[in-house]
Amino acid sequence: MRFLQNLLGGTALALLTGLGSAFGPRWARYQNDLHLAAMLGMDADSVLTNRSSLASAIDSLAETSAVVAEYANIPIDHRNPGRMYRNRYWVNDQYYQPGGPVVIFDTGETNGQAFADYYLVDPTSYIVQLLREFHGVGLVWEHRYYGESLPYPVNGQTSAAQFQYLTLEQALQDLPYFARTFRRPRLPNADLTPRSTPWIMVGGSYPGMRAAFSRLKYPDTIFAAFSSSAPAQARIDMSVYYEQVYRGLVAYGYGNCTRDVNAAYRYIDAQLANPSTAAQIKRQFLGPGAEQNSNGDFTAVLLYNWATWQSFGANGPAGQFCNWLETDQYGRVAPAEGWAPSRGARSVVDRWAAWPGLSRAINSIFETNCNCPEETCSCDLSAPPADPLAISWSWQFCSQFGYFQYQNPRPHEIASRYQTEAYIQDNCYRQFPDGVSSGHLPRRPRADATNNYTGGWNMRPSNVFHGAGQYDPWTPLTVLSQEPFGPRRRVTTQIPACNQEQEAVFGVLLPNAEHVYDLQTSYQPGEVSRQLFRRALHQWLPCFRRRNSTADHD
């Protein structure tokens, strides 16, 4: 079954987007559902309007898959490996021939089941293509604290003490521990451990970080890696996220939309600053009860306009919103400078508030009844998320990564001034009320310590290909970053010698692309990256040498 054969346009591009909480923890479930919807040929609207159809499609995917979940016992704490938990994984060994590699796809901050059903089975997936070409064994690995790979149950009552083992360092040790004894009953004579078989790790977004970091920290386990759209540099201030959205909107012909959104936010923020007008502007957008929300919570949901940008670019709700905003009720299209200079910012706000996509999306994502499409109004946006995926990822970015996306710098602001570091940090405190007092959650994410451990965007692991998209909001934190505050390293498509570190970055920055587009086989411009990694593997794999020991070093 070809699960992607009917994907068109931007829909195909949300498959592997990752970093689901780009807009805070409450968006994580929505972002993960977008990934799955795109994988099944469904558009973004289907996630909001017909969740039962998405669930049915996922069930159908599982029923047609030949892969079965397996479990490995992994130490909860690698420093004191007494207590164990069961980590889920999936394997396809049907393409294996002696000498072939093990190809690992890491699912990162999500439930791995549906991704295993696709990436290990469907012939259009890049993993299956690699397995066929290199005669390898395919392995999909679920990250600790996600899906069914749970050292402790994850819910609103999970304590900070139980989350203390959800760290980058602990998670990076899981695969090397597992790999030492990996074997397949169908291949009793094959030594598939990294001692005798090259392991190749592929991932996009956070899994892309893990792929590169695994090669860096555990080169005796991971021989080579494809690291796509990986924000390797931990950073609290990620206001550049919206700067990238702004750049993409302008490049794709929505400059008038950016100008009107900028003018609208100036008006909205001024209304919010005045207690006598704050309640009215909130009710205008979200109906009765909306006035009870803080300015931060209210303006956070207005960011829905950009919530799918990293997955769909201008082909999803972002483009739909801009088309609505820049086309009036008579079908007239705004000039290049937008409507605000001629009609005033208030008229832009009125048009924005009338967009039907906003309250529909908010009610689906936040399980509210804002604007009262049903009889009972309910518009409380303050509750921390209850979804386990959102909770686990919140712990990771609140403790180690940061990635706080707030208002981008002047003069291009397309977010409210109430989206601040302090507001996002407060979300961490709300999600984990015992975190700081327990000593397990820092008052601010330990981004500097994370970069000291990994090298961040200055890391130089050998045998790694790096990919990114020009307008991906996460590209400024990758090794390919050309931002003024970034490393501005030289990028080359010349395949480096195997096992040789170098200053230049081996990779490709795809023009007019967003998040993890290069791992999507339906995205034809990404073939340059996929083919380059194939060519690199053909050059690197002959360098692999069997070892007498599987000991890794850190």
TrEMBL record:
It comes from the Eukaryota. This is Thymus-specific serine protease. Belongs to the peptidase S28 family. Residues 1-22 form the signal peptide. GO terms for molecular function: dipeptidyl-peptidase activity; serine-type exopeptidase activity. PANTHER family: PEPTIDASE, FAMILY S28, PUTATIVE (AFU_ORTHOLOGUE AFUA_4G03790)-RELATED, PROTEASE S28 PRO-X CARBOXYPEPTIDASE-RELATED. Keywords: Glycoprotein, Hydrolase, Protease, Signal. GO terms for biological process: proteolysis. Pfam families: Peptidase_S28.
